[in-house]
Design a protein that fits this description.
Residues 32-331 form the Plant heme peroxidase family profile domain. This protein is an all-alpha fold. The chain has two domains: 9-170, Peroxidase, domain 1, CATH 1.10.520.10; 176-307, Peroxidase, domain 2. It is 42% helix and 3% strand. It is built from 14 helices and four strands. The protein has helices at residues 11-21, 45-59, 63-75, 108-121, 128-142, 162-168, 176-184, 190-197, 211-215, 229-238, 261-267, 274-281, 288-296, 298-312; strands at 34-35, 151-152, 204-206, 248-250. The strands form two sheets. The protein has a two-stranded antiparallel ribbon with strand order 1-2. Helix 2 runs antiparallel to helix 4, helix 3 (63-75) packs across helix 5 (128-142) and helix 11 crosses helix 13 (288-296). It is globular, with a radius of gyration of 20 Å. The two termini are 21 Å apart. Mean pLDDT is 91; it is low at 1-27. Bound molecules: protoporphyrin IX containing FE and 2-acetamido-2-deoxy-beta-D-glucopyranose (NAG) (4 copies). Protoporphyrin IX containing FE (HEM) binds at residues 62, 65-66, 68-69, 71-72, 104, 106, 170, 172, 174, 179, 196-197, 199-200, 202-206, 208-209, 273, 275. One 2-acetamido-2-deoxy-beta-D-glucopyranose is lined by residues 216, 219, 221.
Amino acid sequence: MARGRGGAIPFAAALLVAFVCSRPGADAAVKELRVGYYAETCPDAEAIVRDAVARAREREARSVASVMRLQFHDCFVNGCDGSVLMDATPTMAGEKEALSNINSLRSFEVVDEIKEKLEERCPGVVSCADIIVIAARDAVALTGGPNWDVRLGREDSLTASQEDSDRIMPSPRANASALVRLFAGYNLSVTDLVALSGSHSIGKARCFSIVFRLYNQSGSGRPDPHMSPAYRSALDALCPHGGDENVTGGMDATPLVFDNQYFKDLVRLRGFLNSDQTLFSDNNAGTRRVVKQFSKSQDAFFRAFAEGMIKMGEQQNPKKGEIRRNCRVANGSPPVVASKVVDF
Ligand code: HEM
Ligand SMILES: *[C@@H]1O[C@H](CO)[C@@H](O)[C@H](O)[C@H]1NC(C)=O
Ligand SMILES: *[C@@H]1O[C@H](CO)[C@@H](O)[C@H](O)[C@H]1NC(C)=O
Ligand SMILES: *[C@@H]1O[C@H](CO)[C@@H](O)[C@H](O)[C@H]1NC(C)=O
Ligand SMILES: *[C@@H]1O[C@H](CO)[C@@H](O)[C@H](O)[C@H]1NC(C)=O
């Protein structure tokens, strides 16, 4: 899965340009997000989301990790605008089919369920983009992680872009220096990058995402040397060469609990993805110091994680948006008969 990733135009920079160039009357606008945004228009919104996320977790423990991941994949591609939720149409390739998302992003039905409840209670008020940000916060809190106030008031995009997702989203092969550079384009620091990668404390990844490092790291025909021998044997058994690449494994030793185990594992060369292990094993990116710090202090990790999620959640799409009635389609689109994207 070679990925041609050119130099991503840092979205924060594009946002700044759009902001500076927008004049009164132009439709581009950076919205003021605030805590309690729906207090008058939909006072139960946050409670409805939390209940639904809790119920989804009872049905399937992993689903909360899958929902939390949506924030990253939404916010990095043209801002937190719910674009990742849109189904493809005959004239628009969706982000769901992008390299990092296809056969991988999941639990869209949890967002659908939340949206249906919110449309019943307060039609046309709560954006899909905000649902993702609230649900991600709740997913972390419900699995033992920190809780934080979410600033709301985002609008949903009218379009999605598979191309932008393919250009921007990082590969599991990425090294720490490339990740530092990518995140810096969003004004996210080395500490933000390491903390946000700690999201891999919950959820699972496919063998598809690690077979290259088990059997042919950087085209060497050899495994990645930055793996403890015992862990490498375990991964070889989980993901044998030529085996089923849809098999999944936890990205730390406690994939149902949001904790700092992920960082303890990286220090012991038990990182699942190359993009995880590189944060500790790359000497020159400045990430190792932070991994060590978080491996020793769960409090420090939790504080930095909440801050990172809030900052990541501020990435905005300056284009004019709407409050979608159905998170999968723009309001102006003809009705869909059935969803073509199957969650698995
Ligand atoms: C730093 C760069 C990152 C890379 C390269 C990366 C890559 C990946 C990959 C390859 C997977 C597994 C996909 C699969 O095998 O199907 C994954 C899963 C996941 N990622 Fe990331 N990720 C990154 C950052 C983040 C961030 C910032 C978040 C959220 C704040 C996040 C949340 C998750 C979660 C929760 C899962 C598990 C999802 C599930 O179980 O369904 N990741 N990531
Ligand atoms: C990290 O990855 C980038 C992009 O793939 C590459 O240009 C660079 O040489 C790599 N750096 C190291 C230290 O391997
Ligand atoms: C970038 O991040 C820093 C540190 O969090 C913050 O003080 C600053 O306001 C941010 N700048 C922009 C343009 O968002
Ligand atoms: C390993 O990767 C390199 C470069 O990507 C490729 O040329 C080579 O055929 C691969 N080897 C195996 C055994 O897959
Ligand atoms: C993995 O799952 C996807 C989606 O269900 C499927 O299209 C693909 O063929 C599967 N791959 C393998 C190797 O089974």
